[in-house]
Amino acid sequence: ANIQWYPGHMNKAKNQIIDILELVDVVIEVVDARIPLSSRNPLIEKLAQKKQHLIVLNKADLADPVETKRWVTYFSNLGHEFVIALDAKHNSQIEQLVTLIKQATAAKTKKIMAKGALSPTIRAVCVGIPNCGKSTILNRLVGKNVAVVGDRPGVTKNQNWLKAKGNIQVLDTPGILWPKFDDQEVGYKLAACGAIKDSIFHADDVAIYLLDFLKTNYTRQLREFTRVTDLDAQSTPELLLQLTKQFGYRDDYDRFALILLQRFRKLKLGRISLDWVAHND
Ligand code: G4P
Description:
This protein is of the alpha/beta class. It contains 12 helices and 7 strands. Strands 1, 2, 3, 4, 5, 6 and 7 form a 7-stranded mixed beta sheet that branches. Guanosine-5',3'-tetraphosphate is lined by residues 1, 58-59, 61-62, 87-89, 128, 130-136, 151, 174. Its main location: cytoplasm. Keywords: Cytoplasm, GTP-binding, Nucleotide-binding.
């Protein structure tokens, strides 16, 4: 589900988002709860300015709940009225998302109904970078599995509205934003969370970044996973090498680096957030 982004693709994607936003009342911006800033394309603030704008911190089941709570407050403090943490994969709290969509459009609905319309249709679209869970949320909202076209930018096809709960309709094609590539640390975080292709970075670089972050911010979890008590006894690359041997991968540093990333994504190190509000205050 990953794509290579070039300036041409970004332009196409941007124009597509602009076109899509013309059609809707509500923009459901989806970010990865583990990296709510790093998985966010800042352009959306501007593009969605004239729309009701919801922020979904998806994959909350994978994120550190303490941090997720802080992120919800963070976005609220930025002036976002409609922010929700969600686990779309296990379908928790979709009802709350529906409620939020209704709240966000209540004023408009009221205005239209005052003019005599019975129950005006609310139109929404999910937008976000690849892999943040847009299609999953869409499917949850619609209540059955719908085929959603791949995430290549610039793909034109007939856009259909899918009926969701109540009088909500969702565009069948999510809007795809590109991830931020301008900052290496952001790149490592995106890679660690599987938001961008593993092949864009060397797995060992990402694994070393992750180990460093965990050493500082999730010491207990890292100790439990590695059974190494003194994590600072050696440099992080040396630690990765030691773990490679310890986990039975002999000298295959790169292979183990990838395994470590996969285990991280599968919660084997616990619920971890790589963007921390405290680091961004
Ligand atoms: P996209 O449209 O934004 O590109 O993302 P999509 O919905 O395809 O989801 C990407 C991956 O993230 C999928 O996993 C999906 O199951 C998973 N996912 C989506 N929402 C959540 C969530 O709230 N929690 C968790 N834990 N995962 C979520 P996949 O690797 O393609 O398949 P699988 O791992 O589900 O088998």
